[in-house]
């Protein structure tokens, strides 16, 4: 994660897979479940509705307009002028329709704005907006570090069909989700031109969506989060990531998003950075990453930028994603040393993904230095890796500080004649890597490394 400063569609089987009352210190390895969203029962019901196109709100309808001359009552004929005024009025089940236009207000959704499990508060682009006149939240011309939208502990909120553009500064962001925020849905939004001034500098960190879990206990976690069918492009995130979920976050679903040329890492879930004072909660857990398309991730400061990166998280599912033309494909790592092996990167399933033309490394597993963290219990199954590692020092599979890794049923192919690296590279970190199983894979144009 390297943070210096404070994120063909498929059939999915919806299964209620865990409770929000999970133990904060996860010791045992649970059975890997392959196709299950994460969240409480009511949140999973909301996910079903989103995927089927149903509304989550059944209350009053209000409107806001960027060209309103005066603060109205929120009706379509007399719309609100400011989001801050609208948020004083909205209650559970209400919808705020955002009329086409450019909004330059920094939007802060406060803790007091709460829907409920049966009635979300929805903030959405007006269905009557045209493609020529969308609802745009813009930071153009604003002071540096202008975060376009902050969610400060609100709950049962849906953000839909808005554009977030032109956030600029050392800590720029499209949407920043803070501690205690829960049951948040961000869908069908567009994020563009979110940039830091000097991407090579360590203190320059931007994010398209950042869930920053610095809450001190289980009650203050960021939880029950859906990031669905959003588009991210033309960004310069510096030492940050496009979609970043870190620290005290649980039950997160990142599904069917498109990321292209966003700068540095595409999708990142991580932890063990000390953001949460309880080390048993200081990492993202129960995260479902599926159906995303990630392209053209490149680091400005020279590191390998992976399309999808699990760094310190636990109980992670990475399924049916497409990663193309990034410097790295998929990494299961652990940059920070854990206080206990119980907090290691743990229980990660990588299945049915496609990784194509990633020049440095297609698949990396483990803490990359001996004093880094440990990665445990990883299953890499039925993925396709094609035309990767075309650098002289590139590698298709890199194993470092890891334990209990199975790589089986995958296809490794090289068709373009540019392969210059290694099929398998293993770091020698005393007893690591250990308990590695590589079997029943298919190799085309490459030497087999099966045991």
How does the SSE layout of this entry go?
Layout: H1 41-51, E1 61-64, H2 83-87, E2 95-98, E3 101-103, E4 107-109, E5 121-125, E6 135-138, E7 147-151, E8 155-160, E9 163-168, E10 173-177, E11 182-187, E12 190-195, E13 207-213, E14 222-228, E15 231-233, E16 241-247, E17 249-255, E18 258-260, E19 265-270, E20 285-290, E21 293-295, E22 306-311, E23 314-319, E24 322-324, E25 328-333, E26 345-351, E27 354-356, E28 361-365, E29 375-381, E30 384-386, E31 395-399, E32 402-408, E33 411-413, E34 422-426, E35 434-439, E36 442-444
Parallel strand pairs: 1-2, 2-5, 3-6, 4-7, 5-8, 6-9, 7-10, 8-11, 9-12, 10-13, 11-14, 12-15, 13-16, 14-17, 15-18, 16-19, 17-20, 18-21, 19-22, 20-23, 21-24, 22-25, 23-26, 24-27, 25-28, 26-29, 27-30, 28-31, 29-32, 30-33, 31-34, 32-35, 33-36
Q: What does this 3D model show about the protein?
A:
- With 451 residues, this protein is mainly β.
- It has a domain at 41-55 and 127-358.
- 4% of the residues lie in helices and 40% in strands.
- The relative contact order is 0.10.
- Residues 1-31 have low confidence and may be disordered.
């Amino acid at each position: 994660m390297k943070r210096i400063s404070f994120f063909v569609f498929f059939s999915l089987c919806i299964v209620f897979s865990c409770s929000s009352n999970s133990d904060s210190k996860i010791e045992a390895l649970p059975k890997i479940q392959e196709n299950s969203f994460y969240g409480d029962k009511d949140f999973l019901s909301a996910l079903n509705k989103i995927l089927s196109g149903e509304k989550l709100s059944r209350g009053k309808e209000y409107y806001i307009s960027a060209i309103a001359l005066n603060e109205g009552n929120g009706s379509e004929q007399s719309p609100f002028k400011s989001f801050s005024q609208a948020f004083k009025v909205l209650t559970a089940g209400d919808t705020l329709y955002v009329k086409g236009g450019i909004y330059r207000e920094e939007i802060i959704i406060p803790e007091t704005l709460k829907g409920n499990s049966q009635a979300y508060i929805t903030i959405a682009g007006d269905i009557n907006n045209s493609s020529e006149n969308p609802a745009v939240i813009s930071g153009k011309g604003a002071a540096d570090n202008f975060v376009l939208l902050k969610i400060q502990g609100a709950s049962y909120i849906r953000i839909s069909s808005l554009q977030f553009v032109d956030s600029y500064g050392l800590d720029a962001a499209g949407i920043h989700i803070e501690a205690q925020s829960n049951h948040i849905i961000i869908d069908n939004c567009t994020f563009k031109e979110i940039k830091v001034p000097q991407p090579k500098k360590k203190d320059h960190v931007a994010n398209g969506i950042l869930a920053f879990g610095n809450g001190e206990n289980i009650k203050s976690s960021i939880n029950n989060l859906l990031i669905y069918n959003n588009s991210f492009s033309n960004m310069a995130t510096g030492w940050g990531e496009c979609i970043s979920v870190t620290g005290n976050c649980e039950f997160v679903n990142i599904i069917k998003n498109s990321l292209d040329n966003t700068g540095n890492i595409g999708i990142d879930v991580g932890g063990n950075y000390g953001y949460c004072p309880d080390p048993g909660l200081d990492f993202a857990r129960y995260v479902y990453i599926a159906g995303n398309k990630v392209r053209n991730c490149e680091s400005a400061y020279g590191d390998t930028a992976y399309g999808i990166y699990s760094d310190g998280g636990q109980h992670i599912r990475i399924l049916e994603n497409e990663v193309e033309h990034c410097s790295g494909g998929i990494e299961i790592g652990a940059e920070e040393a854990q206080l206990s092996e119980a907090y290691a990167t743990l229980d990660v399933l990588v299945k049915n993904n496609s990784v194509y033309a990633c020049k440095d490394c297609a698949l990396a597993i483990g803490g990359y230095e001996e004093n880094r963290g440990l990665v445990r219990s990883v299953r890499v199954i039925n993925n396709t890796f094609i035309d990767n590692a075309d650098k002289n020092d590139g590698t298709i599979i890199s194993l470092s500080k890891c334990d209990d890794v199975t790589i089986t049923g995958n296809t490794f192919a090289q068709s373009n004649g540019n392969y210059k690296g290694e099929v398998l590279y293993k770091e020698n970190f005393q007893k690591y890597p250990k308990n590695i199983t590589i079997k029943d894979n298919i190799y085309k144009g490459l030497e087999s490394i099966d045991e």
